[in-house]
Amino acid sequence: VQLQASGGGLVQPGGSLRLSCAVSGRFFTSTFTSAAMGWYRQAPGKQREWVATIRSGSDSTLYANFVKGRFTISRDNAKNTLHLQMNSLKVEDTAVYYCNRGNSWGQGTQVTVSS
Asked: Which of 34, 65, 96, 103 could be joined to 108 by an S-S link, Cβ 3.0–4.6 Å?
């Protein structure tokens, strides 16, 4: 399974970005929802931290407290794509964001929040 993250960029505090993670590889569409997927981030000089998860089956979601109410994780099953809608961005959200599915990781996409 290959994961390709995109959608990062430079945004002012209070702004929004939508990250995407395209999933590809030798698997069938019916298995896209069979595994939980998540987003993580790593800021300069800090360890990678968990941001959000969307579970398999029920598609219920979990969020880290520092993004709860601002970020929304979702997936487009028809396009085998995971999304992270980020609103009300703060300077402290600046990091490289990674998508994850089991043992597979995307390459990361840079999000910079700065005025």
From this structure: 96
The predicted pLDDT at position 56 comes to: 87
What is the per-residue pLDDT for 30? 58
Tokens of 10: 């430079």
Cα separation, 58 vs 84, whole angstroms: 18
| Residues 38/107/104/71 CA torsion (nearest 10 deg) | 0
Task: State how far the alpha carbon of 93 is from the alpha carbons of 26, 31, 32, 107, in Å.
Answer: 34, 31, 28, 18
Calculate mean pLDDT across residues 62-69.
96
E-state strands within the chain: 2-6, 9-11, 17-24, 37-42, 49-54, 61-63, 71-76, 81-86, 95-101, 104-105, 109-113
